[in-house]
Amino acid sequence: MGTEESVVAHYGRGTVEKQLLEIIKAAGGNPDSFAVGDLHGVDQLHIGGAEATSRVATRAGISQGSRVVDLGSGVGAVARALAHEFGATVHGVDLTAEFVTAARSITERTNLSGQVTFSTGSILALPFEDADFDTALMVHVGMNIQDKDKVFAEAARVLPRRRFAVYDIMLMGGDLEQYPLPWAATAETSFVQPPLAYSDALVQAGFVVDQEAKPLAEGIAFLERALLSGGPMGVENTALTNLLAAFRSGILAPVEIYAHLP
Fold first, then answer.
1. pTM to 2 decimals?
2. pLDDT tens for residues 170-194?
3. Is 245 or 3 the better-scoring residue by pLDDT?
4. N or C: which end of the chain has fewer CB within 10 A?
5. In the CATH hierarchy, which top-level class contains the domain 3-260?
6. Residue 8 pLDDT > 50, yes or no?
7. How buried is residue 124: exposed, middle or buried, by Cβ count under 10 Å (0-12/13-18/19+)?
8. Which secondary-structure segment (H or E) carries 249?
9. Strand ranges (DSSP E) for the chain?
């Protein structure tokens, strides 16, 4: 089994859409038509959740009318937030067909299909023409990608002199030994790298790096709350516990990197 197939196998469990709709039902809502906020951010499976999405989008300069590509869009939460909160038009690409199916269904039920679309595919070879977008986001995806150079080159190809925001969990020092983690059951599909590796790859692709942020305290607090509440949807507590330990020991940290094409 290749790396991409292994990643799909890790994430594709066949229940994600059902779980999201059960949340709506449990709150007394209509699962056929509901607002983005009715999910209370449980579909945003990254450190910091909805608040982090808003921060990253603001720092990336996303606004009304922005044309955004969401690289590794998962169940579509980030894409829907960008459309609902910022007025952007978004296309998400994800490797896991189950996630794309769920993303389309939830987006239709939240009445955002006119602004948000999705396709199944690899972000190593984006299915778009050159200069199709003005902003790209990659949120908690790079940990599963060995060839980040190729992803960043593709991002540069579809962006005409605009911004690229990356928000990943990155290696800060030491050896990462405790698995499972939220993105990988074993080291075979985990490709965490230090921020410098990201910056070097971005520069190689033609980007200028503008800003870097490390919201580590926020990340620790987020994981502590998640463990007390039973954890984010579909993520095992053991994986969260291991990630929290890596944050506390300084091995890993959530890092935001913002860049632009000159």
1. 0.91
2. 999 988 889 999 999 999 999 999 9
3. 245
4. C
5. alpha beta
6. no
7. middle
8. helix 237-249
9. 67-71, 89-94, 116-120, 135-139, 163-171, 208-213, 252-260
